[in-house]
Specification:
- Chain A contains 14 helices and twelve strands.
- In chain A, helix 2 packs antiparallel against helix 10, helix 2 packs antiparallel against helix 13 and helix 10 runs antiparallel to helix 12.
- The model of chain A has no long low-confidence stretch (mean pLDDT about 85).
- Chain A is about 55% helix and about 15% strand.
- Chain A has two domains: about 190 residues, no CATH class; about 190 residues, no CATH class.
- Chain B has a single domain, classed as Rossmann fold.
- Chain B is built from seven helices and ten strands.
- Chain B is globular.
- The chains are: A alpha+beta (about 400), B alpha/beta (about 230).
Chain lengths: ~400, ~230
């Protein structure tokens, strides 16, 4: 006889039991789950947005290449010691260098007209027609310099410069004034994410600069495309090749390093935001524990009844832990959905590809479940320890 | 079935800690045979609720033994004691203790939840039990849609659905008007005639006098234990 006196609760019935009480308190269930959802959503959004941002940076890197090097005359005080005139052909002779293009500062500001001083800080630089290829530039309108136009008073505007000067298209043949001379704008460049400095310049042909503005032909910077495999070998040679007399006056940099540095900066910001998300999650967990403790007090009658109907302490404990788990699991699902949505909206606005690491999605739900169940442990133990005799008499009907 | 009484309370004492300790039961002996129906009657504070909790194994005595079908309950683990409650005991409470979020049928089926039986057979047995208490037409009604008397009938169906050896009813008519309460008593008598062993705890001596056997309790001790000669239910 006594062998049949064992209380048994099927797993599906345990789950059903936990769901009933959550269903019967919909408003509270939703609000409690929301606490967890906010934490999870912020963490998923942080991971998703930074993953999308990284993906966008990598796309940028792919587009512009990591094999671009910049050789620049370093500044001494306020003045810049320009590179020797033959720096460009010397660099071009190096085995791994596939192209080398020079940029020379003219020292002149660019204005809309001779007497207009509303635009400041935009300067003219003289460029080699090869620069377009070397920098993988693209135009939004017009054309770039060729051997015919490099000596004429024409200009191509970087995107920042164009915006500052107020030239958005080439209709009507817009002009700019450099050192009192008019230059016809023949081209507008697309964004140059790797070279924000260049984007702020107005470019004119190198021969035109020498002939019309008396610019000294010493380049201030030379951009090089180098075979990717040879980049480590070539880089140390550049300073001495560019300026054999004063190699220390030459700065060599790799613009793609900037993007990688940006990705690094993003990472530390990501960690901070993740930590904040974690705090939100923890608060959500405390919220669950809080609600469950109240729930246990309110449901003394139900707990007593279940004990009278044959529930063991273990059954009561499991029911409450599971309730907390379902509550937080729901919050986790909601949070992951919300986080994904935030990521998608943000990434779209930034014109990035939406990138959602699957680990963040699965991890979000798993973390929510874990937090919820841990939060449920204490109230569940409290419920299981209730004296059934007191619980039955203390309940309401 | 064993020869032993369904329930045998032997020299049971129950003290609640305090200064001075409160002695709710001061040595109670009570044996209940299968098929009996009796009232335990006494004023509030007499110890009758404590006795009910101890008979129902919801509380343990400080001294003495509670034997259910010949088994000493003091030796049982929580799991076996819970199993005993689910298989051999049925409870009816004054405040019904129904779950408002689920139907009458599911409330009654909860009486078999901790037996490990399948949902299908739980609902089949719950349907039978609800038919037995006269609510065969309200299976899917939520408790909030039922009258007080109907709610108590649902609670009684839940108590008998597992076919327990003993049904313990704590003031089953306490929250009901006289006419409705009479209907509930009649139902308990019917169930007793069909073989159920029933103990009704009450403070109402008029109600108690309508039971085949009346046990009067006062100050934690049994004052009288009488069989009625003529019963008019």
């Amino acid at each position: 006889m006594t062998t049949s006196w064992k209380s048994k609760l099927r797993l599906r019935d345990l789950i059903g039991t936990s769901l009933i009480s959550l269903r019967s308190r919909r408003g509270r269930t939703a609000l409690t789950a929301l606490g967890i959802a906010i934490g999870i959503a912020s963490m998923v959004a942080v991971v998703g947005i930074s993953a999308s941002s990284r993906a966008a940076l990598l796309t940028e890197l792919d587009a512009f290449g990591t094999n671009l090097l910049q050789v620049q005359a370093s500044s001494v005080g306020m003045t810049q010691e320009p590179l020797p005139i033959d720096a460009q052909p010397m660099l071009n002779r190096l085995a791994d260098v596939s192209s080398a293009s020079a940029v020379t500062t003219t020292g002149f500001e660019v204005h809309r007209t001779t007497h207009d001083a509303s635009v400041v800080g935009i300067t003219a630089v003289a460029v080699d027609p090869d620069l377009f290829e070397t920098m993988k530039m693209s135009l939004v309108a017009g054309r770039w310099f060729d051997d015919g136009t490099r000596s004429l008073p024409v200009a191509v505007l970087g995107d920042v410069a164009a915006e500052r000067i107020g030239i958005t298209d080439l209709r009507g043949g817009p002009t700019v004034t450099i050192a009192g001379r008019q230059f016809v704008v023949v081209g507008l460049l697309d964004e140059l994410p790797l070279h924000p400095d260049l984007a702020r310049n107005v470019m004119i042909g190198d021969e035109a600069a020498v002939a019309l503005l008396a610019t000294k032909p010493n380049p201030s910077a030379i951009y090089l495309r180098v075979d990717l495999e040879g980049i480590d070998r070539t880089r140390p040679l550049l300073a001495a090749t560019a300026n054999p007399d004063l190699p220390t006056r030459v700065e060599v940099s790799r613009p793609s390093d900037l993007i990688e540095a940006r990705a690094q900066v993003d990472q530390s910001l990501q960690r901070l935001l993740l930590a904040l998300g974690g705090v939100a999650l923890l608060v959500g967990g405390v919220g669950i524990a809080n609600v469950m403790v109240i729930s246990v007090l309110e449901r003394r009658g139900e707990i007593g009844l279940r004990r009278a109907l044959g529930a063991t302490r273990g059954h009561i404990r499991s029911q409450f832990v599971l309730e907390a788990g379902v509550l937080s699991g729901l919050g986790g699902l909601l949070g992951v959905a919300l986080g994904a949505l935030i990521t998608a909206i943000y990434a779209r606005r930034q014109e990035w590809v939406v990138e959602l690491p699957p680990l963040a999605l699965i991890g979000g739900v798993a973390a929510a479940l874990a937090i919820g169940m841990i939060a449920g442990l204490y109230p569940a133990a409290k419920a299981a320890r209730l004296d059934p005799a007191l619980a039955v008499s203390g309940g309401t009907g | 079935m064993s020869e032993a009484p369904v329930l045998h309370v032997e020299r049971v004492e129950r003290e609640y800690p305090g200064t001075p300790p409160i002695r709710a039961l001061a040595g109670v002996d009570l044996a209940i045979e299968a098929g009996e129906m009796l009232a335990v009657v006494g004023p509030s504070g007499s110890g009758k609720s404590t006795l009910l909790n101890i008979m129902g194994t919801l509380d343990r005595p400080t001294a003495g033994r509670v034997m259910i079908e010949g088994v000493d309950t003091s030796t049982l683990s929580d799991r076996r004691l819970s199993g005993l409650r689910s298989a051999r005991l049925g409870f009816v409470f004054q405040s019904f203790h129904l779950m408002e979020a689920v139907s009458a049928l599911d409330n009654v089926a909860t009486g078999l939840l901790y037996r490990g039986t399948s949902g299908r057979s739980r609902r089949a047995k719950a349907t039978e039990a609800l038919e037995k208490v006269g609510l065969g037409d309200r299976l899917s009604a939520r408790p909030t849609k039922l009258s007080g008397g109907q709610r108590q009938r649902v609670a009684i169906a839940r108590a008998i659905v597992a076919e327990p050896a003993l049904v313990l009813a704590d003031e089953p008519t306490g929250n009901l008007d006289t006419a409705t309460g009479d209907g509930i008593l009649e139902l308990l008598h019917d169930l007793n005639r069909q073989g159920a062993t029933i103990v009704v705890i009450t403070h109402d001596s008029a109600l108690a006098s309508r039971m085949p056997r009346t046990v009067e309790i006062r100050d934690g001790l049994i004052q009288s234990d009488q069989l009625q000669v003529a019963v008019t239910a």
